[in-house]
Amino acid sequence: MTQNSLRETVRVDLGDRSYDIVIGPGLIAEAGAQIAAREPGIRCAVVTDRNVAAAHLDALLGSLAASGIEAAPLVLEPGEKTKRFDELVHVCDHVLGARLERGDAVLALGGGVIGDLSGFAAGIVRRGMGFIQVPTSLLAQVDSSVGGKTGINSSHGKNLIGVFHQPDLVLADTDVLDTLPIREFRAGYAEVAKYGLIDRPEFFAWLEKNWRDVFSGGEARIRAIATGCQAKADAVAADEREHGSRALLNLGHTFGHALEAATDYDGRRLVHGEGVAIGMVLAHEFSARMNLASPDDARRVGHHLREVGLPTVMSDIEGELPPTDILMKHIAQDKKVRRGALTFVLTRGIGQSFVADDVPADEVFRFLEEKRAS
Amino acid sequence: MTQNSLRETVRVDLGDRSYDIVIGPGLIAEAGAQIAAREPGIRCAVVTDRNVAAAHLDALLGSLAASGIEAAPLVLEPGEKTKRFDELVHVCDHVLGARLERGDAVLALGGGVIGDLSGFAAGIVRRGMGFIQVPTSLLAQVDSSVGGKTGINSSHGKNLIGVFHQPDLVLADTDVLDTLPIREFRAGYAEVAKYGLIDRPEFFAWLEKNWRDVFSGGEARIRAIATGCQAKADAVAADEREHGSRALLNLGHTFGHALEAATDYDGRRLVHGEGVAIGMVLAHEFSARMNLASPDDARRVGHHLREVGLPTVMSDIEGELPPTDILMKHIAQDKKVRRGALTFVLTRGIGQSFVADDVPADEVFRFLEEKRAS
Ligand SMILES: NC(=O)c1ccc[n+]([C@@H]2O[C@H](COP(=O)([O-])OP(=O)(O)OC[C@H]3O[C@@H](n4cnc5c(N)ncnc54)[C@H](O)[C@@H]3O)[C@@H](O)[C@H]2O)c1
Ligand SMILES: NC(=O)c1ccc[n+]([C@@H]2O[C@H](COP(=O)([O-])OP(=O)(O)OC[C@H]3O[C@@H](n4cnc5c(N)ncnc54)[C@H](O)[C@@H]3O)[C@@H](O)[C@H]2O)c1
Ligand SMILES: [Zn+2]
Ligand SMILES: [Zn+2]
Predict the structure, then answer these.
(1) Which residues does Zn(2+) bind (chains A, B) (predicted)?
(2) Which residue segment(s) compose the domain that A21 sits in?
């Protein structure tokens, strides 16, 4: 991590697929200059959603134009439902219609939905073209824009169709988060806290003390985002295609995905990061129940996430949840299941997560039955 | 290339993505044993088309079952039109519906259409799962099943959407070609001859003498297919993602693709290998005209391809061709064009092809005007 006044750069080390994540205020206004300096002559298809377009598209297009970068914008509907085959075709057609070549780029201006969808398109048009991420949600800045996982949902489950396609550059403008709805900011914060819980206990402790400053902006926010990016970059560099250690990033996600599925991916009831928040508390509680960790750690996690305003128990979710056997079906369908055995990220305490691939399904069932009653 | 009575094995060297191409008679009946020996416990989605299914699906499924390999078959319509987004979704849904996991495989039983489509699906379901090619057309055996290029067509052009996804194994049963329509056999033969024309002049001379035996079957056919696979494997190992030398494999293809587009990809008028045959003759003639090669070489190529029954001049194509400026538009749209400059594979003589990236468009235009008049 190199620092330059209020600007930090995290390098993702992946041999000839290495790239920079630049983090700091004012980066949208500077995007044209940043891109032109790295890739002279490049042209872009800018993919975004209606919400982000309203707040930031003109600024980005102005910055690109000022650096002489031709850009063809495409504005999609916001929301998880946009991550589907029809919209993938839409983006691919747009990129081809703009006559972009292999060396040109798809630029994703938006949250994880836009990033995942556009990155997938960039990975398959002409069997792979350039890709630039300008993440505008906190979740996208610390998580989805880094690491090259792209994809869409299928009727069989979330993110089941996609490719690994690394971006060439990530520009995380920390100012754009000021227009992000607070609920989305909190949801992204769950992923920030996740890095502390996986293997950075001192970062989690720092967040417990400084989270208010992260929410309000300024240096603490930049530091939290840069630490999150560094954590993600380390995990990705160690295991680009998620054959092993990268699976730790799924802390809280097996439970979280099941809850998202159980609420029909209805963002009014539960957004991804909220599912992850509840899932992380559940993972700590389940670890305590398996005598792997102290129940105090689970309480500490629950306390902190509740304090920032995140849901932390299943009963925080509005409306009815389906019966536990349906939740278990969603857990078993999650793609981290291999040849029948249940794989979970469990923990020995804060910052001491590990992958357990032999978790007994009946224990999980009983645990969930109890938890939802409580 | 290692030989074992009538069986040859060509290894494609790509580090941890290396794989074998096994070539010889009776391999469909032996597929179960071949696969089970390499990947114990694997399950498969078998994708094929109606023509191939009628002749070979039962034999393959029987062989898999005999080795205890679970297989979920999917039969699609034959023809180039199957390489489209709808059918990609269809295959992905089938694979997910069969609950296959990352370590399981999509098995393509068919020609290049089935191979390209299924390989693309294998490359994107769960961000990449296993892939086995059982090519049943001559073109697929010597070309499309080897090298990992997969994809579908778009309204903007052929093969514009796809991924690089290497198979784990290729089983080329030389007997299955006996049910292939002769016109398709000839079309595949154009790609076999192409390897001689690129950089194996002695192989081209051998084909001139032995082509009748290649058509009738037996050892000459196995030898021709194995040589073709070896040539393709060498090109792929040298340049997996087509950044440079692999472009030589496009000999005859820029003209060929333009002719396919000009005939609306109507297989009744022109199939891919026929376009390549005419395209290779044109590439040799154009090279002669540019004083790069002797006109005798162009005549020799035309003579041989005509002798085996392939079309070799534009007027061999049934019906009207569009005006030359439309052909030029198709040439410019071909994905081998970079930032406006026309890139062609030209030649200094038989077996001496090279990539020229500075071919003047007006020379090509005049050349085509003359050729179509002749
Ligand atoms: N690829 C990965 O590695 C990875 C990792 C984690 C999550 N994801 C995916 O990311 C998605 C969730 O991402 P997300 O939470 O960013 O969702 P999102 O893209 O839907 O964004 C959330 C909402 O905030 C709005 N928004 C975004 N930035 C804004 C801004 N600056 N101002 C105003 N509004 C703004 C969006 O329009 C949307 O309504 C999920 O689909 C998830 O699967 C991917
Ligand atoms: N991926 C690559 O590297 C690559 C290379 C070259 C060509 N291609 C693609 O391959 C496709 C052409 O392949 P193709 O020529 O095999 O076309 P194809 O798959 O359409 O097969 C040709 C016809 O022969 C039939 N057929 C195939 N095997 C048969 C058999 N054993 N018995 C009876 N009928 C049989 C098919 O049903 C079809 O009607 C094109 O789409 C082209 O773009 C890909
Ligand atoms: Zn997440
Ligand atoms: Zn070809």
Answers:
(1) 191, 253, 272
(2) 2-176
